[in-house]
């Protein structure tokens, strides 16, 4: 999980009617341009033509640390007293806040210590060290790194710089809203803002609504990390039980209390997006700008596209904040795999056809003019074949439904929204168990670091025979594994063992994709 998922809250005395005025004053007085740059608004020509609206990107990926976080970090530490600066600053982070704070501290000649989970990708660790900060690697997740930062802070007297729930940090991020309104003086119908802890949302939304209340401000979150949506529904910040980590820059378990207090009255709506939709948005940004963003950076554009699809918006001016571009290169293979699905240009289906000459040709004819993007099959039954097929669609919202209607003569399972099918099954077709012992199937996650896979295997032990194992490294902070165990009839023992093992897991034995291709 990204380091912006902090547990510390900077409390303020009152969040009454005077708050909008005070935060606007802080934004106007924010000191960010000693290190940050005024980023441009980029017209997305291809997207605008495709969707019939003027679509504009605010290019925060062009900051010196490739993220907006430098604004809030610098504004915060520039407000510290000489005595506080002499003690130095400290933060816990695995993401963009770490890099922003490191550069801000270097600019002011201040000692900075960043505690990062040991699972943090090297590209981010090296970037933070490159800006002169001391890096302490500790734990497998943010919570452990945060606890360590508090321990160091108590001993060193360094000032903890919160990644989002601090008024000076919020004000620094709010300068983006100030730039948007200055750079585009014409009509703006809506601005789309990615949400993690809410610092960017609170700062930009408060400024835009104060000066141009007619502009819609729309928050965008991943479906599996929607902490702002949860807070709106509950009327207060609530901690999510689980947080998806694909878009690590917005992978936050609970929105800040200050950020929520400001944002709740300045945001018109919240849209949630899927992993596939963010991947498609990354591709969209690349097609229009030749820039590659991180998933969180493309989150707002994914929400903008969904807004157009659901509202039918036409001839509007819509702005999405591209918040960052700190992405590991090896993650791009995962992005490219999922982009077509997110664009609704591909469907994944499982189909049963007769095991006889000419059956595949007949199936292809039923697809009419659609291209097959993937075809996986292995002989396993003399009467019937189960095939895993990727089919190219036209991108129309109803294209998948039309495909399924055209194939109504076949027994079909639509796997387009099945995460296990997309992550594992498509790479493993043909693994039917040729044994009468049967198997139980489980998916696992474990912190990705050197030796982690071997450690996982050793932990799994030799209690049961492993009948299947699939692992694929996508450059994420966590590895994902699908395992088959020959332990039918011993389900209670297996569950107790896996609970004690401590790795997050899911029973996939009855997953429909697994049933089709492995049982």
**Helical segment tally?**
20
Q: Let me know the average pLDDT.
A: 86
Structural class from helices and strands? alpha/beta
From the N-terminal CA to the C-terminal CA, the straight-line distance is 34 Å
Shape: globular
Q: How many β-strands, per DSSP? A: 18
Major sheet attributes: 6 strands, mixed
Tell me what you see in this structure.
By secondary structure, the protein is α/β, with parallel strands linked by helices. It has 20 helices and 18 strands. A six-stranded mixed sheet has the order 1-2-10-7-8-9, with helices on both faces. Strands 5-4-3-6 form a four-stranded parallel sheet, with helices on both faces. It has a four-stranded antiparallel sheet with strand order 12-13-11-14. Helix 1 (19-29) packs across helix 9, helix 5 (96-108) runs parallel beside helix 6 and helix 12 (275-289) crosses helix 13. The chain is globular, with a radius of gyration of 25 Å. Mean pLDDT is 86; it is low at 1-18.
Which structural traits does this protein have?
four-stranded parallel beta sheet, six-stranded mixed beta sheet, 40% helix, disordered N terminus, alpha/beta, globular, 20 helices, 18 strands, 519 residues, single chain
Task: Describe what is shown at a glance.
The chain has 519 residues and is of the alpha/beta class. The protein is built from 20 helices and 18 strands. A six-stranded mixed sheet has the order 1-2-10-7-8-9, with helices on both faces.
How are the SSEs ordered, and which strands pair?
Layout: H1 19-29, E1 41-43, H2 45-51, E2 54-59, H3 69-78, H4 82-87, E3 89-92, H5 96-108, E4 112-116, H6 122-130, E5 134-137, H7 142-156, E6 159-160, H8 167-183, E7 190-194, H9 199-211, E8 216-222, H10 227-234, H11 257-263, E9 269-273, H12 275-289, H13 295-311, E10 317-322, H14 332-342, E11 346-354, H15 359-366, E12 372-376, E13 384-392, H16 399-406, E14 411-414, H17 419-423, E15 440-447, H18 452-460, E16 466-472, E17 478-485, H19 491-501, E18 505-507, H20 512-517
Parallel strand pairs: 2-10, 3-4, 3-6, 4-5, 7-8, 7-10, 8-9
Antiparallel strand pairs: 1-2, 11-13, 11-14, 12-13, 15-17, 15-18, 16-17
Helix pairs in contact: 1-8, 1-9, 3-5, 3-8, 5-6, 8-9, 9-11, 12-13, 12-14
